[in-house]
Design brief:
globular, alpha/beta, 28% strand
């Protein structure tokens, strides 16, 4: 499930559950709505994401790319290290600002993800 809320300057997407191939049919409509709102800042709240695959990452990357082309920014808030790793593997982590100060109030417990190369999680 993806909910969209707005303020004068920000669009916030709150994602709950899986962000993957099974959810891809809703991605074009959501992307069109977000782009149509033309806010300078897009915040993607991932506190309640349970799983993300490369399809979900591609969706987020497309939002960030569209925002950057308009001169805006995209922030990932509450992203699990495993989700950041998926985006990093796609070569697109630099499209996002990572909110390292946010602490999720409720939702999914952080995973115990460890990168295969043993390096620290992307931040």
């Amino acid at each position: 499930m993806i909910e969209i809320s707005t303020s004068a300057t920000t669009t916030t997407l709150t994602v709950a559950g899986d962000l993957d191939l099974a959810e891809r049919d809703q991605f074009p409509e959501i992307a069109a709505r977000v782009v149509g709102l033309r806010r300078q800042l897009v915040v993607i709240d991932m506190c309640r994401v349970t799983f993300m695959d490369s399809t979900g990452a591609a969706f987020l990357i497309s939002l960030a790319d569209a925002g950057r082309k308009r001169g805006g920014a995209t922030v990932l808030r509450g992203a699990d290290p495993r989700d950041l790793f998926v985006i990093e593997i796609c070569g697109a982590l630099d499209l996002f600002r990572i909110d390292t100060d946010h602490r999720c109030e409720s939702g999914v417990e952080p995973s115990d993800f460890r990168r295969p190369d043993g390096a620290s999680a992307p931040a």
